[in-house]
Design a protein that fits this description.
- An 8-stranded parallel β-sheet has the order 11-8-7-6-5-2-1-12. A 6-stranded antiparallel β-sheet has the order 13-14-15-20-17-18, with helices on one face.
- Helix 8 links the parallel strand 7 and strand 8.
- Helix content is 16%, strand content 33%.
- The chain contains 12 helices and 47 strands.
- The radius of gyration is 29 Å and the shape is globular.
- The longest helix is centred in the first third of the chain and has 18 residues.
- Helix 3 packs parallel to helix 4 and helix 10 packs parallel to helix 11.
């Protein structure tokens, strides 16, 4: 991960850039050769543009009727009113090849009335229209490159787009990649054609170069997408800074963070008229609501274009509320055009700051980890003078005053977005927060490690420790704790805090009772302090209600698990992952077990009732489909502690073990890849037998690629004797 420039150095960098600009202006008095003048018109994108694109939500098979229906949904659901005013066709709109005059051809089945009719309709509805092409020459027989304006067609296509009435052009590089061309050379040709189109029509130019990123691993470093910042601001309103953030129909949180980090490498080149572009927004395409709100928060402070990728006709009210929040959008559309930089060390918890035109700061408290964590900064670290600041949470709309420290407990994969400014006059309401809530006991038994999450069964009683702090400058009166519980759950204990002095902390202890009839599943219990009835910053504890612990001697392969993950596909009971073959280790077939793919994690609730786990781990004979198999290690984790681990497990090995489980409530065997060769991953398996007060079994590790069709995948299997 490349760190952005430090906040302290940024003004110096801006002064240096200003000096350089002055020098360039002075040099223009004398004829020079090879000078590069910017072709960007700042008025086309004075703030990051907003809209919707077809690709992730509809793929490449969309129609005129769907586009118009989507535009109407954007009107009906408040997206156009919130600024999302570009409807953008991605790849898939064109028929193969060109006509007799060399023109691109809209697919007549998808667009029976032609594209001019479509743009006229969109304009009448209040939208701008965008279209897609490629900087390289098309290769009609190549499925990767079916449309392209390279090879001498740049001006002809730009003129055609303008005649059709388009207002924006996305220029990809799939054809450029297939033809092994230089990105800068080809994008400059396309930019010149767009600016000089025969209609004189202003068109936003989105430079899209994902396929030369290090993720693809093909191009020399100086030609990769991470280097587009060096020339793209001269020719484009926006430029992609890394590979695609997902696949058609699928955007994952890990890839959102990956693209955000790549996008953060050069914040100094973003500003009015030209923007770094980390790719599209993915509500309901694989992320939770919390994860999508985090993506939207990060794209907002990155001053990124806000292009919705999902089918807006099916968006939930929660997604729409996120996308249309006026206070958050104001940060993205701030006229200063600043892009946020990180002011904390890189890690699971980070602080990012964006300067705003009115002198305030947009501050993001980011928690990359999957569990809640406290994220903290100070007034001086975010670049404000003095100690007192007004803090407005832009998602919850809470406005309070903090003194020196700004902190909050942030849920897993979450982000808090604050607007912070210097406080003046009489002190405002103090900022009351809770620290990280910790579940400390279950049914009176102290947990080995207190945590914000617990695995338990129905009918249990949990004790939760909740630190409550006043980070403001005046006392907070009538402080209480409000706990949002599912129906039938009960809470008692220190729900009334009373008066809390400035800089004081009180730890409340709550008792939460899980009802006997609680359904299996995960429950998020939100704990919110209130000050004189007004809610403050809240925290969350997670309770996973699991199947009851094993009774007697039980084969874990056949006992219901809480959760089971596999590197690919799903864990398979009594078969190699995918169900294709029996579980075989060194020629021996095992009748029972679980097939998984590395890395895997299977979790059982033992509730402190089991005393022993016996089993084995090995590499499944499925690796023999491939002469270049990998290796794995196998672990048994209990209540967050490593109870057993193997050395590297290789082919034709069976590693047996006998593990003491006394008092263990949360059991999950895991595996890891230790080596990967060529295009093949590994297969790992674990299986086991569990019994109350005695657990025995034989988990087996299996590692190999199923065949060359399953290249780049990992498998495992669990086998119990």
């Amino acid at each position: 991960m490349s760190a952005p420039p430090a906040r302290a150095r940024r003004p110096l960098a801006r002064r240096w850039l200003a000096t350089l600009c002055a020098l360039v202006l002075a040099l223009t008095l004398v004829p020079t050769q090879g000078a590069r003048a910017s072709t960007v018109d700042p008025s086309l994108a004075p703030t990051p543009y907003q809209g919707w694109n077809t690709y992730y939500g509809l793929g490449v098979d969309f129609t005129e009727a769907e586009i118009i229906e989507m535009a109407q949904a954007m009107i009906d659901r408040g997206l156009l009113a919130a600024g999302y005013d570009i409807v953008w066709l991605d790849g898939g709109w064109a028929a193969p090849g060109r006509d007799a005059d060399g023109n691109l051809i809209p697919d007549p089945e998808q667009f029976p009335n032609g594209l001019k009719h479509l743009t006229d309709t969109l304009h009448a509805m209040g939208f701008r229209a965008g279209i897609y092409t490629d900087a390289g020459p098309m290769l009609p027989t190549n499925k990767t490159c079916t449309i392209g304006s390279g090879g001498g067609y740049q001006q002809q296509d730009a003129d055609q787009f303008a005649r059709w009435g388009f207002d924006a052009v996305k220029v990809d590089f799939l054809c450029g990649w297939e033809n092994k061309l230089d990105p800068e050379t080809e994008f400059r040709k396309m930019a010149e054609a767009i600016r000089n189109n025969s209609e004189g029509r202003p068109m936003v130019f989105n430079l899209c170069n994902p396929v030369t990123s290090p993720y693809w691993g093909e191009y020399p470093e100086h030609m990769q997408s991470i280097g587009s910042w060096a020339y793209a601001p001269e020719i484009a309103e926006s430029w992609r800074t890394y590979t695609d953030v997902g696949w058609v129909g699928k955007i994952q949180f890990a890839d959102v963070l990956r693209n955000y980090d790549a996008n953060a490498r050069h914040p100094e080149v973003a500003g009015p008229g030209h923007w770094n572009d980390p790719d599209y927004l993915g509500p309901q395409l694989g992320m939770t609501d919390t994860e999508f709100r985090t993506q939207f928060t990060l794209w907002t402070v990155a001053a990124a274009p806000l292009m919705i990728a999902s089918d807006v006709r099916t968006l939930s009210d929660t997604s729409l509320t996120i996308l249309t929040d006026a206070d958050v959008l104001a940060v993205n559309q701030d006229p200063l055009g600043d892009q946020a930089v990180r002011v904390s060390p890189a890690g699971d918890q980070e602080v990012w700051v964006k300067d705003l035109a009115d002198g305030s700061k947009a501050v993001v408290l980011l928690n990359r980890s999957a569990t809640p964590a406290m994220v903290s900064t100070t007034v001086s670290e975010i670049g404000l003078k003095g100690a007192r600041v007004t803090v407005r949470d832009l998602w919850t709309k809470q406005a309070t005053e903090a003194n020196k420290t700004i902190r909050e407990t942030v849920e897993g994969h979450g982000a808090v977005l604050l607007r912070v400014s210097r406080a003046t006059g009489q002190p405002g309401p103090s900022r009351v927060i809770i620290g990280l809530p910790q579940i400390t006991t279950v049914d009176g038994q102290t947990l080995p490690v207190a945590s914000a999450e617990a695995l338990t069964a129905a009918g249990t009683v949990l004790e939760v420790s909740v630190p409550v702090s006043n980070d403001g400058t005046r006392p907070a009166n009538d402080v209480r704790l409000d706990v949002d519980l599912p129906d039938g759950w009960q809470v008692s204990g220190d729900t009334v805090i009373g008066r809390l002095a400035p800089h004081a902390t009180r730890t409340a202890v709550l008792t939460i009772t899980v009802p006997e009839d609680a359904a299996l599943g995960t429950y998020q219990l939100r704990i919110t302090p209130t000050v004189a009835g007004a809610p403050a910053a809240s925290g969350v504890v997670t309770v996973q209600v699991a199947p009851t612990p094993p009774e007697g001697t039980v084969n874990l392969a056949h006992h219901p698990w809480v959760i089971a993950t596999s590197g690919w596909m799903q864990p398979t009971i009594d078969r190699s992952v995918g169900g294709w073959t029996p579980l075989i280790i060194n020629g021996v077939t095992y009748a029972t077990g679980i097939g998984v793919a590395s890395p895997s994690d299977i979790r059982w609730y033992t509730g402190g009732q089991c005393t022993r786990l016996t089993g084995g781990a090995g590499v499944d004979d499925a690796v023999k489909f491939n002469p270049q198999g990998g290796t794995v290690t196998f672990h048994v984790i209990g209540d967050g502690r490593v109870l057993y681990e193997t050395d590297v497990v290789r082919r034709d090995q069976l590693i047996t073990f006998d593990v003491d489980l006394t008092g263990v409530r949360d059991l999950h065997p895991q595996d890891e890849q230790t080596h990967c060769t060529a295009d093949h991953g590994r297969l790992l398996g674990i299986g086991g037998v569990s019994q109350k007060r005695h657990v025995q079994g034989r988990p087996i590790n299996e590692n190999a690629a199923r065949d060359w069709v399953r290249a780049n995948t990992d498998r495992q299997s669990l086998i119990a004797a």
